[in-house]
Amino acid sequence: MAKAIIECPHCKKECERRPLSRISPDRDPAVRQKVQDLSLFRWKCPNCGTTVLVEDPCLYHDIANQFMVWLAPDGKKPEAGHFDPLAGYALRYVDDLNAFREKINILERGLDDRAVEIMKLILFLQLQHDLDVVELVFHDLDERTGDFRFAAVLSDGAEQYAAMPGQTYQRVLLDVSERLYTPHDFVKIDMQWAADALDLLRAE
Ligand SMILES: [Zn+2]
C-alpha cells in the first residue's frame, strides 16, 4: 500500500501516513466502532500532537450483512468495474464522514436505506414547521417500541431527538420495494434521492 504525505495543519511538518483504502469489519470487528466514533479517521501529528480528521477515499465492505459503502470525498460516483456485481448486495456511495457512518449504521441493521431516507424527508418536513433543522441523521431503533430514532441538528448547533413509528417504515418499505427500481450499482441514496423518489411515487 502506497504511503502518502500529509502536512500537519498546525506545525506544517510533512509526514508520511498510510491512507485507508478498504475497511473490513469481518476481518477486524473493532473497525466497526472506530468508524462510528470516527477514530479510524483521526491522524495525530508525530511532531506536535495535533489531531486532524482525514477523509480518505475508501471502501467499507461488510460481508456478513452484504453491503459495500464507498466514502468518496470528491462526490464522484466510484467505478463499479472493480467489483463483481454481487447479487443481493446493497452498493452505496456517500461524500462525507457523517453520511458514511450513518449509512453503515442503517445497513448493518438489515434496514432498507431507501425507506429510511424517505422517512427522514417526511420527518424533516414535519419538524420544519417548528424548528430550524439543518441536518437529520438516523440514530438507532428503540428496542422496546420499535420506533426509529433520528438526531436533528438545528441551526444553532443544538441536537434534538425525534422518533417515527416502525409502522411508517413498513409502509414506506412496501412502496419502495414494489414501485421503485434501484440499479444494482453504486448509488447515492440521501434525502435528495428521497425527494425525487417521493415525486415519482406521488406522480403515479
Ligand atoms: Zn504537527
Brief digest:
The protein has 204 residues and is of the alpha+beta class.
Map the helices and strands:
Blueprint: E1 4-7, E2 14-17, E3 22-23, H1 30-36, E4 42-44, E5 51-53, E6 58-62, E7 67-71, E8 90-94, H2 97-107, H3 113-127, E9 133-141, E10 148-154, E11 159-164, H4 166-179, H5 191-203
Parallel strand pairs: 3-6, 7-8
Antiparallel strand pairs: 1-2, 4-5, 6-7, 9-10, 10-11
The structure holds zinc ion.
Q: How many domains would you count in the coordinates?
A: 2
Mean pLDDT: 92
Give the total of beta strands.
11
β content, as a range? 25-35%
The set of bound ligands, ions and cofactors reads: zinc ion
Helix content: 25-40%
Radius of gyration: 19 Å
Outline the biggest β-sheet: 4 strands, mixed
Low-confidence stretches: none
Strand order of the largest sheet: 3-6-7-8
Helix and strand succession? Answer: EEEHEEEEEHHEEEHH
Give the terminus-to-terminus CA distance: 50 Å
Assembly of the depicted chains: single chain
Choose one word for the global shape: globular
Q: What is the overall number of helices? A: 5
Structural class: alpha+beta
